[in-house]
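ok trying again, last paste got cut off:
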Amino acid sequence: MGFQMLTILPYLVRLRIVSRPQRAGTGAILCQPASGHINAFAKHAGRFLLSISSLGPQCSCWFCARHSGFLAKGMRILSQRARNHNNPLVIQVSLDIEKIPGRGEDAEPILSISRNGGGLLGVFDGLGGAGGVVYEHNGTVYSGAYHASRIARQVVLNEFSNMHDQIETGDQEFAQQLADSLRRALSNELTKKLAEIDKNPTKLKSTLIRRLPTTLTLLHFMHVKDCLHCLTIWAGDSRGYILGPTTGLQQLTRDDLKSEVDALDNLTDDSPLSNFVNADVSFELHSQFHTVTKPTVLFVASDGCFGYLPTPMHFERFLLKTLGEAKDETDWQQKLTDGFSQFAGDDVSMALVAVGWSSFNDLKKDFSDRRKVLVERYLKKLDSIEMSIAQHKNELEKLADSQVRLRKQVWSQYRSNYELYLTPPPQ
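nice, full thing came through this time. structure:
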């Protein structure tokens, strides 16, 4: 087990327990307690405080190299429940599940909360189909999709650490300028990285293959009185969502698909992507502002989260069921991890914040009625039909087994007369 530091703003880092070894690769930002730079100690209820000590020149990680001077002044690092005097509790859940340990093509999600309670969420899903080409670099071999998601994550970290204070709420023109600036930075960095790792580029051209392809979805939010001003930036089919106690699950970002299908049809149609971050051809970063009433849940998710359930309603129920059964946010994170690990056929990454509740229990209570409405209004009949299908399927399987046995039994009775004139098989 280790301690992981995630950063997005120059004045904030966040601690998260990780139960697996830190994945190597572009954009990894990690300080291990064993290095002697950070003394960490646990307090009750899973809350963690850090004290900065002996930041020495031996530390070469990106974060310490950039911010060691600021940290040396005794910057307070926020706990997993981020709170300040002016804003309510911000409950945080971050998931990063690899189908193949050490080879996950989703980069670690970004989940960062500033001192004013605003923050940034981000997911990056390397596209294994389009980016299946592998590259050997510094003695290790990873797919282009693996490299791409991590490069994109690092570019976002760098760009938003400079841009955060410039983001103006509600200005769509500025939002698109920011997205265009980020797109240029991504394109430049991917091109640079490709020159490093692609020593023998193929001359074959294909519209199905792109070098260093990844999705990207960001959700930046700021407190404005009783609302949150949310800016989404995205390319591909990773999504931004709102989850409200009365409104339920609402998708903020429109998937970049070649077919005009909705969220339900895309679960079976599986349309190819029409736009995503890559190093070969131009791509677009969309941007959109939204004003959301507090309290609310905001999150971003790769398609491993929502692509393996029958409907978007089932996805909402899964989120609310695990929330209702959880004791606290750490337990909710674990229950989500266990559930996704059972049914997802892909890597899973998610960054989620619940804003505006005074406690985790209040969050649970507010969503208890929504879960009942969801089942009664949308899922009760579906559940009944699915149960009937399962029962009939079991009966059909039993009938099929009986059919096989009966076929053999009848054949054994029929066979002697049927084969009367056949010569015995050769010895």
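cool. Helices lie at 62-72, 144-163, 172-197, 266-269, 303-306, 312-325, 329-343, 360-418. Confidence is low (pLDDT under 50) at residues 1-87.
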